[in-house]
Amino acid sequence: MRILICTKLFYPSEAIGSVRPTNFAIYLKKLGHDVTVITANTQVEYDVLDNGINIIRVSNSSIITQIKNKNERRVNGSNKLRKENTNNSLHTNNLSVGFFSILKTFLSSVFEFTVDFDWYLSAVKTSISKFNHNSFDIVLSSFGPLSSFLLGRKIKKLRIARFWISDFRDNMKNEANLTWLNLIYEYFEKKSVAQADLLTFVSFGQKEIFELNNKVDFLQREKSIVIYNGFERLFERVISQISSNKKMTFLYAGQLYSGKRDFSMFFEALSQLVFEDKVDIHKIKVCYAGNNSSIFQNQSKKFLNLHGVFEDYGLISKKDSVLLQNNADILIALTWNTVHEKGILTGKFFEYLQAQKPIISICCGTVPEAELTLLVRKLNLGIACETACFNQDIKVLKNYLLARYTEFLNSEKIYFEPDFEKVKEFHFSFSVKQLNNYMNILLNKSN
């Protein structure tokens, strides 16, 4: 089978969005398919994925590249100036600051959209020059950003590929986007329903919201499927060891999405245990690694009796993040579940599976039984708590924390007995076998 994958994010990018399309390419190739990837140009001298995958890297137009470089220099300069003039900002009119903040957000989103659309135009030109009609059996586009989706759609329209699979790592339309952008996204979500031969999602909750938002009828839902994300490295069961840490170490790695992912329930449980003299703050450590340090600090500073237990690593490389996960005693997974946004499964959760450490998942929002909650419980990975059941779940969380803390103090193995056979099914090789089956169904239908 000849497969073209359109994804602006791809290895060696460390963006979490590159993990899924990269592993799709790797394991589809291992299944014997002829795989080509068209992606953004990165500052690498050669492609490290030396496994027969044909990787075509496309740059933005020269004009946009020049503007991007100038903008990056300007932003870096203004950030430096802002730090130097922090005290002066106290005298700035709040109304003026609010207006310029909104204007800056709007202009920034327009600029990002323009840069992305420019890359799409460059990728179309490259595709037309390199490919012929029916060069591929299937084109798979991986949203986001929008350019990846548009390129897959265009490849199908130009008949360079016979079938189009539109993969959604995230739904296009969401509450965090500006209104004008959501209008564009709403249009293209509906186009994907009408024009794609198969729609793939990362969770059942995400699929449900997509179908409700776009009024997908019963017949159209037959081409909507869920292909879970997975972990990447080879998986072998590791016998749990006695912790070598001087302090019991909790770790969260990843983004906090403007506070939608919230530590508060975890901090509250820990704070109560400290107040009750059941946990010594000198024996615990809560670590954060990600690019939302200010949000982490705002969420933690409310809990006065926990000051001194927090350690903020900031944004670090994927390699360092994995090392922190392997050295932690317990990993924290955060998500949210609302009427309008369901099935939010962070890629970090699947990365956590590889570390083979207990997981505490906290789901914010008013809708109970989030998909992350169900998975943690199904795989017996640790404990899953939800703010929708706060009064009940915080008691369970306190008991769990105290039990693991006692094991740590007594130099015992921290309890972790997951269902390893079920966990192994979340390796990307299993996900891609499922995807491959649906690809074969598409081709067999045409024949």
> Number of helical runs?
14
Q: Give the overall form.
A: globular
DSSP summary, beta strand count: 13
Helix content: 40-55%
Give the radius of gyration. 23 Å
Name the beta content range: 15-25%
CA(first)-CA(last) distance: 14 Å
Whole-number count of domains = 2
* SS class: alpha/beta
At the fourth level of CATH, the homologous superfamily of the largest domain is Glycogen Phosphorylase B
Low-confidence stretches: 79-92
CATH topology of the largest domain: Rossmann fold
CATH uppermost class of the largest domain: Alpha Beta
The major β-sheet equals:
7 strands, parallel
CATH architecture of the largest domain, by name, is 3-Layer(aba) Sandwich
Order of SSEs, N→C? EHEEHHEHEHEHEEHEHEHEHEHEHHH
Mean pLDDT: 90
What is the spatial order of strands in the main beta sheet? 3-2-1-4-5-6-7
Write a compact overview of the structure shown.
45% of the residues lie in helices and 17% in strands. The protein has 14 helices and 13 strands.
Describe this structure in words.
This protein is an alpha/beta fold and 447 residues long. The chain folds into two domains: 2-66 and 73-77 and 99-230 and 428-446, Rossmann fold (3-Layer(aba) Sandwich), CATH 3.40.50; 248-421, Rossmann fold. The chain has 14 helices and 13 strands. It has helices spanning 19-30, 62-84, 94-130, 146-157, 179-195, 204-213, 264-275, 293-300, 318-327, 347-355, 371-378, 390-409, 420-424, 428-446; strands at residues 2-6, 34-40, 54-58, 136-143, 161-168, 198-201, 224-226, 248-253, 284-289, 310-314, 330-336, 359-364, 382-386. The strands form two sheets. Strands 3-2-1-4-5-6-7 form a seven-stranded parallel sheet, with helices on both faces. Strands 10-9-8-11-12-13 form a six-stranded parallel sheet, sandwiched between helices. Strand 1 (2-6), helix 1 and strand 2 (34-40) form a beta-alpha-beta unit. Helix 3 (94-130) runs parallel beside helix 4 and helix 7 packs across helix 12 (390-409). The radius of gyration is 23 Å and the shape is globular. The model is unreliable at 79-92 (pLDDT under 50).
